Amino acid sequence: MLLSDLKGITPNRTKALHAAGITKPKHLIYFFPRKYIDRSNLDSIAMLSEEQTESVLSVTIQRVQTIGSSRNKRLEAFASDESGTIKLVWFKGVNYFEKSLKTGKKFLIWGPAKRFGSYWSIAHPNMENATDENRVDQHLRIFAIYPSSQLFEKTYITNELLQRWIGQLLDDFSLNEYLPQYVVNKLALLNRQDALNAVHFPQQIIDSQKGLFRFKFEELFLFQLCVRKIRADRIMKAIGLTFKTNSRLVSRFYSDILPFELTDGQNKAIEAIRSDFESGFQSNRLIQGDVGSGKTIVSMCIYGSH
Prior knowledge:
Elements: H1 11-19, H2 25-29, E1 35-38, E2 55-67, E3 74-81, E4 84-90, H3 94-100, E5 106-111, E6 114-116, E7 119-123, E8 126-129, H4 133-139, E9 142-145, H5 150-154, H6 159-172, H7 181-186, H8 192-200, H9 205-237, H10 247-257, H11 264-279, H12 295-304
Parallel strand pairs: 4-7
Antiparallel strand pairs: 1-9, 2-3, 2-5, 3-4, 5-8, 6-7
């Protein structure tokens, strides 16, 4: 399947995807959400709080009115559930929303609620017709929020559209597993297909966390393998010099000259470097430690013993 086979794709949308670095189907599959919004549970008007980033309500329209005129015109709708009443406000698209907001009609709404006077209010809420219970259930879930751009906004590439495209690709693609099965089993990781579904279509927030953890582990795992391979290739292909340790000088330096005992970490570092020097292979080591932790004395010990 190609990007051009996706339902709803257009030349302008293709350009927008390319501008975001998405030129192949696999790029879209691994285009991960930047955050998630939990809309899986309904709130009640009486329990609203401004600390909530978003509230989800099932309400019935009680009254609709327009206030002002011309550019200052706004639409207000008073809606209620069993616990109270909330005011919904639109400053744009007034004529469009006025036609769809009928008294007695039920809607599922979501957005950030603010307190103004005696009413809770949501400006430009997201809405879905709640007369069909199946459609309501489809919207009571975890929503993935993807990185966006001006081109995405201009071509109406929404989070919902991205999810539909990704779902279409996941249904069509057969994905290979990179990780050894014993590693997957030992660490209780999700397999690749399940992890992608958990990232893009989580049933709970913890599902997305498990999916993302699998790919974070995979990235680090493959990076470590690459580093080990580079090191192994260098060791096998490049012949290094061999340095023999002068045991007499080492013993004298430790017993007669050094006024303190080395730490276990320093001794381990010295032994590892000595082993490298005597192996005949190239060595490339970094001595790492805080200021004053004793890095210089380690190098002095190595220098003085060869």
